[in-house]
Amino acid sequence: MGIETARDRDGLVRLIVAAAGYGKSAALEIACPADGLVAPATSLLDGDLPAVSFLGVDDVDRLDAHDQPRLAHRLGQVPPSVTLMLASRTPVAAAALAQLRGPVFRSGPADLALGEYRVARVLEEEYAIDDPEAASAVVEATDGWPALVHFAGDVLRRDPTADIVEHLARAGSGCAGWVDAHVAALLPPGTASLLGTLFRLGPAVPGVMTALVDAVPGPRANDPEAVLRELEETGLVVRRPGLDRSGPPTVVPVVGACLADRAAAVPGEVLERVARAYEEEGLWLSALRAWTTAGDERAVIALATEHGRLLARGGHPDEVAELLAAATDPSVLLVRAEALRLAGDTEAGRRILRPLLEQSRGTDLPPGLATCLAGCLYTEGDHRAALAALDRVPDVGAGSGIVRVEWLAARAQVLSMLGGRGAAADVAAQALREAVEDGTPGALAAAHLAASRVSTGTRKELHLDRALRHAVEAGDLATAAGVRVNQAHLLLAGARFLEAARVGRDAVRLCTLAGGSGRLPAAMHNLGEALMRIGDYGEAAWQYRRGVAVSSRLGAGRAGLGLLGIGEIHRELGRDEQARAAYGEAVDLATATGELQVLVPALAGLARLEAGHGDDRAMATATRAVELATPALLPFALLGLGWTAVSLEQWPVARDAVERAVRESRDQAAADLLAESLELAAAVETDPHRSRMLLNEALSIWSAGGATPACARVQVELGRLVGADATARATARDAANTLRRLGVPESRVLHGAGSSDRAIRVRVLGRFRVSVQGRVVPLQKWRSRQARTLLKVLVAHRGRPVSRERLCELLWPDDDPVRTPHRLSVLLSTVRTVLDPDKAWPAEQFVASDGRGLWLNLDTVSVDVEDYLTDADEAASLLQEGRAEAALLVLADLDRRHPGQALEDEADEAWAAPLREEVRIAQLRTLRRLATTLGRLGRAAQAQDTLVRLLAIEPFDEQVHRLLVRSLAGSGRHGEAERAFDRWREAMIMIGAPPPERGPRLTDV
User: Fold this and answer.
1) In whole angstroms, what is the distance from residue 476 CA to residue 514 CA?
2) For the whole prediction, is pTM greater than 0.90?
3) Could you tell me whether strands 83-88 and 54-58 are parallel, antiparallel, or unpaired per DSSP bridges?
4) Domain span including residue 338
5) Nearest to residue 582, comparing CAs of 570, 590, 600?
6) Which residues, including other chains, have CB under 8 Å from residue 8's CB and lie 6 or more apart?
7) Same domain, 914 and 779
8) How deeply is 530 buried, as exposed, middle or buried, from its count of CB atoms within 10 A (0-12, 13-18, 19+)?
9) DSSP string, 386-397
10) Which three-class secondary structure state does DSSP give residue 674?
11) Tens of pLDDT along 349-404?
12) Does residue 814 lie in a domain region?
């Protein structure tokens, strides 16, 4: 819902106008804060207005023309500090709007309507409908009108194959009755008939509205523009996005169908005026529909002959083909065949072309016929037959206009797919020269799209940008859709994921409008990948599932691309068995069809899964991907091999793979693959400094593109590198929380050779715990409590040697000193075995010893209390350097990390007291610095909460009391400041210290 919450600014007035069922009342309730009120307009006409910070006024439409201005006048007297939000089913009278104070911000149906993914969630959560294509059908029928969406969901729950519009519009249906009572009943006389008539004809452009004046009389028939504005404002007609702007006003299909029985009979001469009005607007399909309804065959042939190319390529090609079904004229048949091809029915398209091909003499074909035939064959995947069809055109030289340019563009496309890059580049260059000479937008769009196929880098982007601009200018929806699919793919390769998501949505929208299914799965896959990269896994999975559904309609073997995406999401989220199933199915389908662009990445992903589970087949699977990979796919395969080798700790194989992956990704200018290659390079690097450089470079790529999960993954690994500073560790912990929030398990961060997680980790803040190689040591492994105590004593001495005599005295104070040295040796052996169960390291690796005694090697053992104290010192240094934001990050992390006292299970032991006190002092200093820093950065509420927690630990700290009282008073929380001052006085009296003197203002104490 696109309505902002309240409290955006003082004096704000929001007005929501939309028909019933758009969710206006829900928007008021969502915006209303705890100290606000939502009330019906009729209840506010008399009496005192409530004293609240937010006032929502519902059902303004229930007031008449006299009462609306009266209420508005009353509301105009409300103080500017009160936010006003009004909702109405019909436009509010101008006299009332003039009475409202300040600017009025309007919201309407477009802000309240549900998008496709929101509709998909509603259908799944409330109606148990998980068909990925159902949401598209519902939005097409309802334009996202919330109440109608729920009616549609109820229909599909009972009959998943139902025609939504037909079922909802049936006489006696709940939806038809609701539309009649809550929509039609509020319309001026004649408007319901107008809507039913427009539903049958097409968009409500001004010329059509004027033509319908006599056919649909009403009280304002002489002002069709005013009628149209009101219908738009309430959402009964909507402007669906077109090529580069909103399209013409169109009746919401369900509403139009419910009112179709009220449609007026339109005379033939009016239909002719309607058809011409559509032609003047360039709405060729609507014009064709009007001429066909009028029964004017000559006008149909003339329209199809003159504007056939744009008629077929302007959207809804299936309807174009149906409207031209009775045509026999050769030029019209060619238009119908092209429409069928674009609609995805290439077999029917070739069947229509057959008599035209038989009429052609010898082997020569006209360029338009050859291009249409080649398009059908290309769509079916028979690229060589497509080239053969194109080769049947005699080379008649330049100057034949757009038809020849499109023929050249088709040749360039087919040649590039067959690997003839040089020949394709020559043909594309020729197409561009002739398009420039022709000068028409359609020719230029086709030529630039062809040139983009044989270009790389900036030149490719430039050709795509120009192709899109010219396609929009020409009204060529099909070409624009193809350009957008290519642009989204290019943005993904450039690791520009936020931009790729925006362009990807446009590509899906344009492919849907253009009709057919050919490009739609690729568009959905691109959008799914972009969404997955930015961390929107829910919608990404839905887009992939839609791609599978659309592809399956084209043939059982076409769904591999979507299954690959689904496998990637499952693997990212740790759903390994589901990922394995999706990858496996994608591999099977791609093996059968020979789609290497699916097969190679699917094998690479499957190998990584197998390696993670110790599967012996992992290396063979990864190697197969490398052997099958084309140059463009080689980085995918090498990354799969490299990560598989890292999981299996086959470091020579991993290093060879990463060296090649970095080189190939860089040569192909594939920034996304380069970033992952840099991560892989860091994983195999043993030098932490070098790993840090590689990871930071990868982070810069991911961050620039908005790849939230990848950024978090890299930040976690940076924090785990040996030698990571306090800021890196704090950032890593925040990043780990981000991954958890996104649903990505921490196990998906594959630790490299330089990761400190390969060292021993000891926790003494709170409950004592030791982890070796990421696994907590169970109690029985210690054999005795004294072995754990020995390690705790060494931790408490913070890496300083402790003499054997002192250790024996601490561990066995009452035993015979002659016996205890041997017992200490046994304990030492036990501790070393626990920390190095496989005897992989020298005996002195973790617990060192010499004549001075024993000590813990803090270079190889990670101790949480050491990290805590070191980070506390670093936070203080950052503050001294004036780096408040960096210090705040570390201080907040220190606050979150401190779960309890140091060595709290040894509370009675004197040897633990010094460390415990050191940690307590560090915690108090940390909280004080945190509160002070928050206050300086303007985060008073957080600072006050921190000061309160600090006083709970140290209730007699006069400085903290003073800071809290001043902060509360300065924030205007005077009652709380008074109570805090009283607690301060009581605390000082309790310890015999001078109580504070209360001045005229608490901010001065």
Assistant:
1) 9
2) no
3) parallel
4) 296-359
5) 570
6) 83
7) yes
8) buried
9) HHHHHTTS----
10) helix
11) 999 998 888 877 667 888 889 999 998 888 777 888 999 999 998 875 555 689 99
12) yes
